[in-house]
UniProtKB/TrEMBL annotation:
Gene3D superfamilies: Tetracycline Repressor, domain 2 (1.10.357.10). InterPro entries: Homeodomain-like_sf, HTH-type_TetR-like_transc_reg, HTH_TetR. This is TetR/AcrR family transcriptional regulator. PROSITE patterns: HTH_TETR_2. Coiled coil: none annotated. The keyword Transcription regulation applies.
Length: 213
């Protein structure tokens, strides 16, 4: 009678150990990518920093590009929980907000708050894509996911009935896509020294002026 209980316990323990290994690998990779860059970071080095076998790293992440994508996803979400961004509380709060200007302000406040940690990972992927086909696939995936997110956001804004006359949902999506790109943060904050707060206010005002009546 005790055998099934023991198997469940062993399975649970293995699953928890796998989750802990994953967290340690992601933390190690994030630090190494930021410190050394994508090309100079090797998977055995990630394994050593995480305190796991290199086979454990490859079991969790097929290759370095997949690991970079996972680092990006965790950085955006703030955790490694299996909850998509669309299901997060801040998105739900934006969706129920009736004012389109306030929706934009709420989103840009969130974006400015995470940009200092998220944008460097995006730029790593963008730069790595030039020399690594696997990284290029990951960068394309990241861009596609961003476009999808902005498509939903545009539809939400259009549904308020307060978008400027003559603008389609695709037009609004493209404006959001352009301002959301990491290049804006790179230019304004990394090159010109703007604070994330100023960057967020600039994007808020620019998007409101561009898409709302």
């Amino acid at each position: 009678m005790t055998e099934p209980v023991k198997r469940r316990y062993d399975t649970s323990r293995r699953q928890e150990q796998a989750r802990e290994n994953r967290r340690r690998i992601l933390a190690a990779a994030s630090g190494l990518f930021r410190e050394k860059g994508y090309a100079a970071t090797a998977m055995p080095e990630v394994a050593k920093t995480a305190g796991v076998a290199v086979q454990t790293v490859y079991k969790a992440f097929a290759n370095k590009a997949t690991l970079l994508k996972a680092v990006f996803d965790v950085t955006v979400a703030g955790d490694d929980e299996d909850v998509p961004i669309a299901g997060r509380d801040f998105i739900a709060a934006i969706q129920v907000e009736p004012s389109p200007a306030r929706k934009i302000e709420m989103y840009l406040t969130h974006l400015a708050g995470i940009a200092p940690v998220v944008v460097p990972v995006q730029l790593l992927a963008r730069d790595a894509a030039a020399a690594d086909p696997a990284a290029a696939e990951v960068w394309a995936q990241m861009r596609a996911e961003m476009l999808t997110a902005m498509t939903y956001f545009a539809a939400d804004l259009v549904a308020t009935g307060l978008v400027r006359a003559g603008l389609t949902a695709d037009d609004v999506r493209d404006v959001l896509w352009t301002y959301h790109g990491p290049e804006q943060y790179e230019l304004l904050c990394l090159e010109r020294g703007w604070s994330p707060e100023r960057y967020g206010r600039f994007l808020r005002d620019a998007i409101i002026a561009a898409v709302l009546a």
